[in-house]
Amino acid sequence: MNSIITHAPHHPDNIVVWPDGTWAALGEVWNGGFSYKSDDFEIVRFDNAARLKELGLADELDLP
Length: 64
Hints:
By secondary structure, this protein is of the alpha+beta class.
């Protein structure tokens, strides 16, 4: 059986978070803006407000 993907697995507006607390939009990472950082990061969907709040990014990202 074939799977149907209804959305792209990653969106450029998703948030990349490194263990040291540094974060960036995935699109910035794709463009090479953070090539000096390790590949040890978490990708959080931009619409996952609960996880972004857990990571302490709510204020920086202007989340309600």
